[in-house]
Amino acid sequence: MYIATSRSSDLAAEVDRKPALRRVSANVVALGMVSLVTDISSEMVTAVLPLYLVLGLGLNPLQFGLLDGLYAGATAVVRLLGGHAADRWGRLKAVAGFGYGLSAVCKLGLLAAGSSVAAIGAVLAADRTGKGLRTAPRDALISLSSDPATLGRSFGVHRAMDTVGAFLGPLVAMAVLWLSLGNYQAVFFTSFCVAAIAVLLLGLFVRDRRSDLEQRARTTVRAALGLLRDAPFRRISIWAALLGLVTIGDSFVYLVLQRRWSVEPQLFPLLPLGTAGVFLLLAVPLGRLADRVGRWAVFLAGHVALGAALLILAGPTGGIWIAVCALALHGAFYAATDGVLMAAAGPMLPAGLRATGMAVIQTGQAVARMASSVLFGLAWTVWDLRPAVFVAAGVLLVAVLAAAVVKPWAVRA
To answer: Major facilitator superfamily (MFS) profile domain location, by residue (predicted)?
Structure first.
């Protein structure tokens, strides 16, 4: 657990006096480039998938919620397997690379799936399996390549680079749709080509952080399960899952915007750009703020921003500026939570179990968000749009208040 001692404060101050380019290791930058290119590929698909499924194939909100939940939750078990395998074999880069490669191949799978909802669901599950395998080893590499006092900044830089890809992905998808006269298959094939480049970048430029034989011998299933006996780590894992349960998925946020303001289908892929732009601007500043004032406080503030965005979406008034505010708050939510949570958890974990421990937290979130998508889709189907959004916002803000009172640790983290 990271404890704010005078020594760590002096270290943070010393780091702040260094030139900006020396604050983040080259390995973090290389991983950021891999994530940037990968996100161009994945966001191309994400940007068009809701419309493809809801408007193109005619799915209702509950059916879409089931698929969206599968998309979010298919990573649950493989996150643990990927994290533990990476620690056990001492090959973080190899396991991450396999995950990136699997996700790339799945873009071709979408071409083969055609209009079959079952086949699309299977391909999405396989794609998320690849993401589940790579995420914990990748975040462990970032953590192990960084100074503990500046983990928030390192994760912020990585997430900012990742978000550049998220920003470019929808633009590329729109360009491909325009050039191909609305051919979704062209988007899927282009996405595969971009993902293949990311795998190549990983192999050429990312350095592995291998553990020694003695450390690997201590990386057992019993040791992994023992992580949850540590009270602070157990609490942060539980709260991350509970907050994930009351967090609605991105696709639903964009569908709510589309329904409430009648966004034209050809403009729908632009909606994620609002989220990505704010995420890009705030990821590094909020990462640095988390290092200074406390990572849990910033993490919870991000969920408050999401709750505010939902209240705006469910409000009685509309207009372009309301939509802009909602997307800005949605981007702030990600900037304050995504990398900050991993930065908070990293110092709690021994180096030999870093990927495993991060996978435990990410697995809890994945399962919770899978359930959240299904529940919100059901609420939308039964209650209609605005009541479902109001209930989601209210439950989220109550959960944030509870998490602020019952902190996962007693000291600054």
So the answer is: 27-411
> Token pair 């809801």 is at which residue?
54
Cα separation of the two ends of the chain: 8
Which of 119, 133, 8, 30 lies closest to 82 in space, CA to CA?
133
User: Dihedral through CA 135, CA 137, CA 141, CA 147, nearest 10?
Assistant: 80
> What's the DSSP call for residue 56?
I
* pLDDT tens readout for residues 225-279: 667 777 788 888 889 889 988 888 787 888 787 777 766 666 666 777 888 888 8
In degrees and rounded to multiples of 5, residue 25 shows phi and psi of -70, 160
Question: How far is Cα 117 from Cα 67, in angstroms, rounded to an integer?
Answer: 9
Asked if 106 and 212 count as a contact pair (C-beta separation under 8 A), the reply is no
What phi, psi does 61 have (nearest 5°)? Answer: -55, -35
CB 408 within 8 A of CB 232: yes
- Single out the residue of 134, 158, 140, 135 nearest to residue 210, CA to CA: 140
Q: Where are the alpha helices (DSSP H) in 145-294?
A: 151-179, 184-205, 213-217, 221-226, 231-245, 250-261, 271-293
Q: Who contacts 389 (Cβ-Cβ below 8 Å, separation ≥6)? A: 256, 310, 313, 314
Distance CA 70, CA 301 (A): 28
For residue 229, the 8-state DSSP code is: G
Q: How far apart are CA 263 and CA 79, in angstroms?
A: 36
Q: CA torsion angle for 4, 6, 9, 10 (degrees, to 10)? A: -160
Q: Which residue is associated with the tokens 């992580």?
A: 227
d(CA 398, CA 354): 31
Contact 86, 95 (CB under 8 A): yes
- CATH number of the structural domain 25-208+216-405: 1.20.1250.20
319, two tokens: 């207009």
pLDDT tens-digit series, residues 347-377: 888 777 888 888 888 888 878 887 887 788 7
* Phi, psi angles (nearest 5°) of residue 361: -65, -45
Domain ranges of the chain: 25-208+216-405
